[in-house]
Amino acid sequence: MTNSLFILACLFCNISLLLAQSPLINPLPEPDPAWESWRNRVPVSGEIRVGLGIFSEGDKVGNSFFVGIPPLKSTSTICTEITSIDGRYSGAREYSVKGLTSGIYELAWPTKYLGDLRKYAPTEVVILSSVGKCKENAESYLISGWQKPVNQDTITVLLNCDKTTNIKIYDKGRDSTLVFQSVPIDGFSSVSFNSYVKIPWHPRYEHCEIFIEQRVRRGPRSVSFNRFPLLISTHDALP
Asked: Which of 124, 131, 219, 224 allows an S-S link to 85, with CB 3.0 to 4.6 Å?
């Protein structure tokens, strides 16, 4: 799904998680040596993406990260993409999660650009983890982060768009809709994302309809909305 709007959503969701003791999970073998890239010049963004991330005070960009993995029935593979806010760095790897029980796992990120990435703040390098293979449409998105989270329940969605954009959560059982407005990010060459939306997260939201809504003016007196679903999988992965 492509569009002039590039949406990179990153959810900071520290919900007093407990990190299970588990071995570091390495990515699947990658036949393409160009699985990651660094651009000396800032590029122009293009397609739509959605991603979820956990960020805590004291986080540092490193060569591993954490992912909350729920029960997966249709696939045993997840995809992780990492992108810097200015779009200079991007990489994508697949991981086998076959046989894993629900929980938080540490995954290796064998980048050769670690020195460059550590020049960014953790909130300037976004982790995008999804269910399925990287070249397929994501079944849903997973919560990821640089370190184990502590004592926070606010989700922050990072966006990149030049239109008025909101996050909406429709609770069918209560027949109610929550609306959260985006706030611009200033003072950086923002290519991957340039605004954010903060949401006080509740477990029942996983069973609600969540979508990103962009207001688009079609003419002097005509306005319409583009909507992009945001399917989040956390069931049983987070205590």
From this structure: 124
Q: Is pLDDT larger for residue 15 or for residue 26?
A: 26
Nearest to 123 by CA among 181, 41, 198, 68: 198
**The whole model's pTM is what?**
0.79
How is the beta sheet containing 176-181 ordered, strand by strand? 176-181, 164-171, 209-219, 222-229
What lies within 8 Å, CB to CB, of 175 at 6+ separation is none
- Spatial distance between the Cα atoms of 52 and 91, rounded to a whole number of angstroms: 16
Tell me which DSSP letter residue 102 carries.
S
| Type of residue at 71 | P
Strand pairing class (52-54; 141-145): parallel
Q: Residue 34: its pLDDT value, please?
A: 85
Q: Using the predicted structure, report yes or no on whether residue 179 has a pLDDT greater than 90.
A: yes
Q: What is the mean pLDDT of residues 70-84?
A: 87
pLDDT tens-digit map of 160-171: 777 778 899 999
- The domain ranges of the chain are 36-229
Q: How far apart are CA 215 and CA 225, in angstroms?
A: 5
